[in-house]
Structures are given as structure tokens and as C-alpha cells.
Amino acid sequence: MLDWGPKSLNGGNISIGSRLLSRHILFRASGSHFRIVLASKHKVDNMGHTLTPAIVDSAALLEYQQRGFLLVEDLVEPALLHSALDELRSQRETGALVQNDRYNHTGQVDFTKIPNLVKTNEAFRMLASAPAVVQVVETLLGQRALIFRDVLVNKPARTGASLDYHQDSAYWDVEPRALISAWFTFRDVGPDDGCLRLISGSHTRNYPHDIRLSTKHALPQWLTAGLRRLASLSGTGDSDASGFSVARRLKNRALGSFTRRASFIGKLQDLHARIPDGEKRLALEIPVRAGSVLFFHSQLLHASNPNTSELDRPAYIVSYMGADYTFCGVGQPEFLVAAERNRKVFQKARIAKP
Questions:
Q1: How many Å separate Cα 107 from the centre of its chain?
Q2: How far is CA 331 from CA 225, 241, 249, 334, in A?
Q3: Residues paired with residue 44 on neighbouring β-strands, in sequence order
Q4: What confidence score (pLDDT) does residue 243 get?
Q5: Would you kindly state where each structural domain of the chain is located, as residue ranges?
Q6: Looking at residue 253, what is its pLDDT?
């Protein structure tokens, strides 16, 4: 049984600290500094309306533009996290939850994906459209946001797999390549739990990507390009908003249950960026507390550590595109408007001209 309870690393409950508006601290990791933004408490006006004070000021915005990521502490209320996990458990118990398990060479699940929760789970939609979260995203995007894709990724205790460096936009059919992902965790996550590793400033460059069957053997580029095209046919970014449902089911089965018999098949879904060794040495490990959110650019090189801890490590990742961005994949998808929290509102994406 997966233990997805919102526990901190020391086994206690989530602890959300005091929230101070426009207060920044500098965090030191691997010899570098980056800025952490501390979110402020929400206020209520005389009419009972909740007000969300400005979270990202000019210094934080500049930090994001230069580094490609921003960590905002204490942004999400514990109640939202608890509610999301409770509804997830309910879906699992009723058999209504669709998840894709990947198996390693020993026959153990090392990676689980549960996509498209914003459409099927109201608590996760509330999390993805939380006013403070949307405010940060739209400030960084500079325009209204659409929810392009969302996925919960679980790394099982002790066997959770690592993920190599890549740029998310290498997987996605959206232009410009400037989407923003919000990375939520339900318990405190550090280096031993499978936290992210980021290469600051790498979002300003394009890196070639390979599909590797081993550390020394990469597929030919023509074959990598063909598999990438197949991914578009099944729905870019694991989203069910585009592509063909038949191709999506085939892909999920091939990269999920089929790996129980042939684990190497799982390698076909992972892109590996070609990075100079000197740049890898600049990587930052980013611990994230429950209730805090890590925002990062879709071109930022990132990887994640294996989970060697005694607890499962679920993380929820929501990726947002600008309302004026262009969809270049298969189909004419509609995406949820991020700021519409009271009801589901879809907007058709701009479609690239043939």
C-alpha cells in the first residue's frame, strides 16, 4: 500500500511557517545562491472576498528570468494537499484511477504516472488553480495561463528511479518554448527522496536530446525523431487533450505494463540532453517543503534523484502555457483556463498554420 500521506521528513505533520509579504531569503546549495520567495498570508476585504497580495516582485521576476526557476515557500495551504490526497485515495479504492506503472529490470515498479487529474479530480483542480499559484504563473508568463498538462509522479520508497537531464519542451508541441511548470510535493523532499536537480540559466539554450538504451548506446537521430513523432500522435505531454486515443492507449501499455516483461522498453520514453560535463557540475539540488512550490521554465535542464528513502515520493506537476501560445501538435485541443476556479472553463488553443 502506497503511503502518500503528507508527512515531513522527520515524520511529523506538514508545518507551514509564517508568511511574510515581499520578504526574500537567499538559499545556498552546491556553492551557489538562489532566491526563495516567502508567500504572504491571504487577506479578506470588507465584503468577505479573499485577496491575494502580490507575491513576485521585480527582483524575484528578474531572478526567474536569469535562472529559469523560482522557489516560493509556504504558497499552498495544507488543507489543499490533504484534500487532493484524500480524493486520490478514493479514486484508487473505487477503481476509477488510471495510472501507468513502469517496471525495472528486477520486476519492481520504479515510477508511476497519473495524468490529467485536473479533469477528473476536483481537489487537484483546486490545487492547480489556487489563486496564489496562478498569480505567480501569470506574473512569470506575462499573460493569462492555460493548464497545458498535469501529472502526478510517484517514486516508490527505496526503488524510485532517477531521471536524467532533459528540457520539457523537447517533449511538447507548443511554441514558444516558454511554458512554466509548478512542482508540488506532499511531504518534505530532499536529495535522498528524489528532489529535482536544476542547471541554472540553461533555459536560454537549446540542447540536442537522445533516446538511450544504455549509458553508451543512443538511438540514431532519425529513429529518435520518429519516436518523438509517435509521442505527438498519442498526445503531447501525456495530455488527453490532443492526439489519438488509440495511440495513447498503445503508448501507455507499451511504456507501462509491457516493461514488466521487457524493462528496456521503458527507456524509449525518456529523452536525455547532451550536456557538457562542466555544466553538469553547476547543478543545484533543490529541497522542497510540503506547501512550497517550485516553478521552472520548460527549457530549463532538470533531472531528479532516485528515491532511496523509506517513504514514497509523490509529486504533482502542473504545466501552464500562455493563452496566446501556439499548439503545433496533432488535433485542435482545448485547455482549462487556470484562473477559472469556480467552474471548468476551456479555451481552444491557437493552432499552428500548416
A1: 26
A2: 19, 8, 17, 10
A3: 50
A4: 63
A5: 24-351
A6: 59
Domain boundaries 24-351, CATH class: mainly beta
Contact 283, 273 (CB under 8 A): no
String of DSSP letters for 116-152:
-HHHH-HHHHHHHT-HHHHHHHHHHHTS-EEEEEEEE
Amino acid identity, residue 166?
H
For 11, the grid coordinates are 515524520
- Averages of pLDDT over runs of 10 residues in the chain (354 residues) are 38 30 39 61 54 81 95 93 91 82 82 91 96 96 97 92 92 96 96 94 94 78 76 72 64 57 60 89 93 97 94 96 94 94 95 84
Residue 41: DSSP 8-state: P
pLDDT at 111: 85
Which residues lie across from 33 on neighbouring strands? 28
Q: How far is CA 122 from CA 86, 129, 243, 272, 353, in A?
A: 11, 10, 24, 34, 34
The β-bridge relationship of strands 23-29 and 43-44 is: unpaired
Torsion of the alpha carbons at 156, 29, 61 and 15, rounded to the nearest 10: 50
Estimate to the nearest angstrom the gap between the alpha carbon of 89 and the chain centroid: 20
Residues with Cβ < 8 Å from 41, sequence gap 6 or more? 19, 21
The gap between the terminal CA atoms of the chain, to the nearest Å, is 48
Can you give the pLDDT at residue 258?
Answer: 54
